[in-house]
Design brief:
The chain is mainly alpha-helical. The chain has 12 helices and 5 strands.
Length: 242
């Protein structure tokens, strides 16, 4: 059988692929440096993290909220340690606290607006008529150190902007907690209080938490112990046994 002459196409293909791939690999290897150069050319600056390195969420919460929450806890007869622990759970002690959009809440408010339901908690159809989707999204977003849902502003008689404002959001959040489930806190039923804040329900008798994070309540109780040691007033005491 006659032998076919060897072709140089294989070598040429490899060389061409190497020429194409080499800059791609180099770009990938130096991608962070390239991204930095592009940001510099465009005049983009990254926001600086205001939290010093090594500062925990608990310490950061004290730095940002201790004085304000101490006053509010006394004013509303609520546990300082509970309120501070709740802030850590909800926004990691950050100030500004940030926000979270809840798509399922938006859908329910949209159904309320279109008449598919006649109420959503304390909010009625008349409260959301005429609102555009951007305004409805604000109502479906949680705000402030306690991540209070925007629609809570309606029965409280305040504006969503008040929940966003650093000067007013903490007081409004504490006011809502006091009226909504403050008795749990005052009676030191802290498991019920944490669970209610996250789910709108008391801690289940089954002992199985229904919070989005299964450790939400237990972490809250643990954080309270830290703030009890640093509390400006008397310690909150332990949660009741259920």
């Amino acid at each position: 059988m006659a032998a076919y002459p060897r072709s140089g196409y294989g070598k040429k293909f490899i060389i061409r692929m190497a020429i194409v791939m080499a800059p791609i690999l180099l770009l990938y290897y130096f991608r962070y440096e390239v991204a930095g150069q592009i940001r510099d050319w465009l005049g983009m600056t990254l926001p600086a993290d205001p939290r010093p390195a090594g500062v925990s969420d608990l310490e950061w919460c004290e730095h940002n909220y201790a004085d304000e929450i101490a006053v509010l806890a006394t004013e509303y007869d609520l546990s300082y340690s509970y309120l501070m622990a709740l802030i850590v759970l909800e926004c990691e002690g950050n100030k500004p606290a940030g926000h979270r959009f809840e798509g399922h809440v938006f859908s329910r408010l949209k159904h309320l607006q279109t008449g598919k339901r006649d109420r959503y908690e304390n909010v009625r159809t008349a409260d959301v008529l005429g609102l555009d989707d951007s305004e409805l999204r604000k109502l479906a977003t949680s705000w402030g150190p306690f991540q209070l849902m925007g629609y809570k502003a309606i029965p409280l008689g305040v504006q969503v902007e008040d929940l966003v404002d650093e000067e007013t959001s903490a007081e409004i959040g504490v006011r809502w907690i006091s009226g909504e489930y403050g008795d749990f806190v005052r009676r030191k039923k802290f498991k019920d209080a944490f669970h209610y804040h996250n789910t709108g329900k008391r801690f289940p008798l089954s002992g199985r938490s229904q919070t989005h994070d299964p450790y939400y309540v237990s972490n809250g109780i643990r954080y309270m112990k830290h703030f009890d040691k640093h509390s400006p007033g008397p310690a909150s005491g332990n949660d009741d046994k259920r």
